[in-house]
Amino acid sequence: MSKLHQMIERNSLVMVLMITIVASIGGIIEIAPLFTIENTIEKVEGMRPYTPLELAGRDIYVREGCYACHSQMIRTLKTDVDRYGHYSLAAESMYDHPFQWGSKRTGPDLARVGLKYSDDWHVAHMKEPRRFVEGSIMPGYAFLADNDLDLDRAPLSLKALRMAGDPYTDKMIAEAKQDILRQADPELEGEDDLEERYGEKVQIRDFDGQPKRVTEMDAIVAYLQMLGTLIDPKQVSDKIRAEEAAKSKALKGESQ
Predict the structure, then answer these.
(1) DSSP one-letter string for 186-237
(2) pLDDT tens digits for 11-27?
(3) Which residues, in sequence order, are bridge partners of residue 215?
(4) Quick one: which H or E segment has residue 185?
């Protein structure tokens, strides 16, 4: 055996071949089972695609590199659950391209930060993080309150995500810019069917304290306030377990 190891280690081509074989076997073992199930993500009632304003906020979140310090994946570890709440479900990231998972946390996990703090808190924290967390290395993002949101990007973003499989309709795309204005200004006159398109849990209000403008701060606060608010994860996970147990029991009955 030692001679075989020496031969492999001294011959680079043989080493590459062996690595390829081992990696292929491992890949097949991990990937093949996925073809035996209809969907790797359970469909969960309440999950919906982002509103145009929330999506703009998510794009800003990614643009500014917030994901480098804040994960959005609560692991099943007791320490995670005790601090952040119920562990994350795959369905909660079904409309994320790319998803914001990870375990690297310079700051806290944000998977369930929605409605944990007020809009004013988020705005003030974004502007001056060290007012709230002494010694924080988070940079300030006061400029977001000065930048008007680019509304023209909204329909293009929705079109791109529809190509990726998200269920945005022609109506949603056509009304994208107006839906941003509607969500950030509840007093806006005109047709208001935002909740009809995105569900009754859409938060509609002025998020950044500047009612005359729709800024990048409006967008990122709207995004943060939505995170973790669409479903009850415990109820969903209990339902999934019950369905799996029922399927398992039925299969055992058929085999007997």
Answers:
(1) TT--S---HHHHH-TT---S-SSS-TT--BHHHHHHHHHHHTT-SS-HHHHH
(2) 888 888 988 999 999 88
(3) 148
(4) none
18 closest CA partner among 3, 1, 5: 5
Q: Is the pLDDT of residue 43 over 80?
A: no
Strand partners, 148: 215
Per-residue DSSP letter, 228 = T
In the numeric block, the tokens 């995004």 are attached to: 223
Which of 49 and 103 is assigned the larger pLDDT? Answer: 49
Structure tokens at 137: 């290395």
CA dihedral 162, 200, 185, 152 (to 10 degrees): 0
Backbone dihedral region of 85: left (phi > 0), alpha (psi from -120 to 50 degrees) or beta?
left
Of 90, 74, 87, 96, the closest CA to residue 39 belongs to 90
- Rounded CA-CA distance 46/194 in Å is 15
**How far apart, in whole angstroms, are the C-alpha atoms of residue 225 and residue 113?**
7
d(CA 214, CA 152): 13
> How many Å from the N-terminal Cα to the C-terminal Cα in the chain?
47
Tokens describing residue 206 = 């002025």
47 with 231: CB under 8 angstroms? yes
- Between CA 60 and CA 217 the distance in angstroms is 9
